Amino acid sequence: MRPNCLYISLIILLFLSSVSVSFGQTYLIGGVLKEKDANVRIAEAQIINQRTGLSVSSSGLGLFQIKAAIGDTLLIIKREYSDFTAAVTTTKDMIIYLSRDRNLKEVKIYGQSKKAELDDIKREYRNKGSFYQGKPPFLAFIFKPLTAVYELFGRTPRNARRFGRYYENEMQQTLIDRFFNEDIIQRNTDLREKDLEDFMLNYRPEYENAKKWADYDALKYIKDSYKKYTDTLRKK
């Protein structure tokens, strides 16, 4: 092999190896969700990494962070908006615009909590024939085999299964929001605007911790986290 050919081959190999490393490495990807043509931020949307199955929710300010690699695809789901997929092509923050779903009929529910509203949707899926939310128990294959097969492969149960994941995530995020929201943070700190956004994004508690809290625990977490946040700002 000629020296020039060998040199070119080495360059190609180095390039391919660097590409494979960058595509396999996982990063903490940040972003913001906005409504298309309205410049309104979208809170409590579900962002799913379709490769890993990891799911997070956007904050009250439409912000999110999720672990992903270059080349992954994010699925964004939010009621009253069309589902949207976005490819991760860079480690920079993403701005994702969602369009309102024009095919959804307008539903106005007064005096209901979020849980009551979501429970109504659950009942709708059951009325349409999805009794197990797309997850039939083992005994169903013995006593109701046709129903069990339909639950696994039918379109309605598949949508019910996806909604079940959304429902669980929404309930978890609602519990977190009860303890960790703009109003409570502003009443217990001097954080405002950009600093408030950064704090809420970087110090949002995990559900496994928040589910054990009483009001005192939440306030202690906010004050402890606020001290860490301001200490970090002083070091910059």
SSE diagram, text form:
Blueprint: H1 3-24, E1 26-35, E2 46-49, E3 55-57, E4 63-69, E5 73-77, E6 84-87, E7 94-98, H2 114-127, H3 138-143, H4 145-153, H5 155-179, H6 182-188, H7 193-202, H8 207-210, H9 215-235
Parallel strand pairs: 1-7
Antiparallel strand pairs: 1-4, 2-3, 2-5, 5-6
Backbone shape: globular
Q: How confident is the prediction overall: mean pLDDT? A: 77
What percentage of amino acids are in beta strands?
15-25%
Task: Please count the helical segments.
Answer: 9
User: How large is the radius of gyration?
Assistant: 23 Å
Tell me the total number of β-strands.
7
Helix content: 40-55%
In the sheet with the most strands, the strands line up as 3-2-5-6
Major beta-sheet overview: 4 strands, antiparallel
Low-confidence stretches: 14-23, 103-112
Alpha-carbon distance between the termini?
A: 54 Å
Could you state the order of secondary-structure elements as H and E?
A: HEEEEEEEHHHHHHHH
Structural class label? alpha+beta
